[in-house]
Specification:
about 500 residues, alpha+beta, HIT family, subunit A, 10-stranded antiparallel sheet, 3-stranded mixed sheet
């Protein structure tokens, strides 16, 4: 079988995956050579001319050539930056992507998102290889099946760094792009300290008479994990205005859920400084949760409303009238914003007047009705719990100490990559083998030894299932009204206030 040089092989892949044609081959070869820093493609590696080598495998070889040539160091680039530039050949210019998206939308919203999602994967903007490294499995709990993921594709952010970034607005305004969610990331080459976005595209959409942008997450945690971001840089805010935008979004894209992180440190997500939502065509565990108690909202005659059987205090509202849902949700949010219960460490405002209460909202469209889930959040701290009273408590922080954001609220754990190696050592410890178990895991591991019959065949399963139960406890820690007698009595008091319209 004939051989082909590396640059021509990659050019052929581009032609297969894009609107380039065979007439563009020489042009593409020369462009690729220029990016990699080669002057003669005949001296580069040769390979068999067939379809057995993937586009990403060829991309790896090209970045390796650039590194060997010193091109990356000379141009102050890394492999991620060069890879995005090379894969950008597959992606049409932004105006064309948007034109195609809305042409598909005329057929159906699903056809539009299928087009955009497929393009984002084929161009390696969505890091499918890195995502595939994540460790994922289900765990059955009293609240239903939760999903556990050990995140090996994207580093988690420190909660203190998140809060500092929100306060340091002056520094952010001087950066370009001003945030990793800004519209200016589209096509940005990146820097050694900033992710490359050359092959990145966004779709403008209108929400609440404003321009917002729809894109996919490069490190997706679930199917078609999307981000919807404000055109203007402004802090996260959870209120009637943004809840209306969530409802409008699912009207436009009914197969997607959408939600917002809470808008306060500790209980918020990893980026509080840029108003944005997360969405996806995926059913997270919370969507399957059932109501354990029905309720009414004063002045709002909804199809259905109630408290979910969920580790975090969640109120679900269901109706086909968006305005009625907004009125009901607004009543709940305002009641919670000002609610105090000292016996349960629930405090709406600090001594300095700082707000401590907000919600994490999630919206879906199912069976002809809109669903709004409002998860009550409180970011108070205390001497006993300096990281947050309603944050993972110290005894479970050996598994999870990071913020509990929107995705985890809905029952999908995003656990830190350190756990892959640490849990392997825990398994060896449980089996009585040589190990380097971390001291922070010893108490937990000793308890497992006492409660389980462990052998080489079941040790991984036992550890994984125990991690899942700990995650369930993590969510209980983040819940404001606990699932015990005093917590449920406190919840009844709060619900009564909403039902009578105080």
């Amino acid at each position: 079988m004939a051989e082909i040089d590396l640059f021509t092989a990659f050019a052929k892949k581009i032609i297969e995956e894009s609107d380039y044609t065979i007439d563009d081959e020489i042009y593409l070869v020369n462009q690729i050579m220029g990016l990699v820093g080669e002057t003669n493609h005949n001296t580069t590696p040769r390979l068999v001319d067939d379809d057995s080598v993937t586009t990403l495998a060829l991309l790896d070889q090209l970045t390796a050539v650039a590194e060997k040539n010193g091109t990356l160091a000379l141009r102050q680039m890394n492999t991620d930056m060069l890879g995005a530039q090379l894969m950008n050949f597959i992606v049409p210019r932004p105006s064309q992507v948007r034109k195609m998206f809305w042409e598909h939308y005329q057929q159906s919203p699903r056809q539009a998102t299928d087009y955009f999602f497929d393009l984002s994967q084929r161009s390696n903007y969505i890091k499918t290889r890195e995502i595939s490294q994540n460790i994922s499995y289900p765990v059955d709990t009293q609240y239903g099946t939760l999903q556990i993921t050990i995140n090996l594709s994207k580093p988690e952010k420190d909660p203190k760094a998140i809060a500092a970034a929100l306060k340091n607005k002056n520094q952010q305004q001087s950066q370009y792009p001003v945030s990793q969610l800004a519209k200016e990331n589209e096509g940005y080459w990146g820097r050694l300290d900033y992710a490359a976005r050359t092959n990145h595209r966004v779709i403008p959409i209108t929400l609440g008479h404003e321009k917002w942008y729809f894109q996919y997450s490069p490190y997706a945690y679930f199917n078609e994990h999307a981000i919807v971001l404000s055109e203007n840089l402004r802090p996260m805010h959870v209120d009637r205005e943004n809840l209306s935008r969530l409802l409008e979004f699912v009207s436009k894209f009914p197969e997607y859920f959408i939600g917002s992180n809470a808008d306060l440190p500790i209980v918020g997500g990893s980026i509080l400084s840029h108003d944005h939502f997360q969405a996806g065509r995926y059913e997270l565990p919370m969507a399957k949760a059932v109501m354990k108690e029905k309720m009414t909202i004063a002045g709002c005659d909804l199809h259905e409303a109630g408290i979910l059987n969920w580790p975090m205090t969640t109120i679900r509202l269901i109706d086909d009238d968006r305005e009625k849902l907004l009125n009901a949700a607004d009543r709940i949010m305002m009641a919670w914003q000002n609610y105090d219960d000292a016996s349960l460490s629930i405090r709406a405002y600090g001594d300095d007047g700082e707000r401590h209460h907000t919600v994490t909202p999630i919206v879906r469209f199912r069976s002809g009705h809109y669903e709004v889930d409002l998860v009550l959040r409180d970011n108070n701290t205390s001497d006993a719990f300096p990281d947050g009273i309603f944050h993972p408590h110290p005894d479970v922080q050996h598994i999870k100490q990071e913020n509990i954001g929107l995705i985890e609220v809905m029952g999908l754990a995003i656990l830190p990559p350190r756990l892959k190696a640490e849990l392997a050592e825990v398994a060896q410890y449980l089996l009585g083998n040589d190990n380097n178990i971390a001291l922070k895991h010893r108490t937990w591991a000793d308890a497992l030894k006492q409660s389980e019959v462990i052998n080489a065949n079941n040790v991984t399963h036992i550890v994984q299932q125990s991690v899942g139960q700990i995650f369930s406890r993590v969510l209980e820690d983040a819940g404001v009204f606990k699932n015990d007698q005093s917590g449920q009595d406190g919840l009844e008091k709060f619900i009564k206030q909403i039902e009578v319209g105080e």
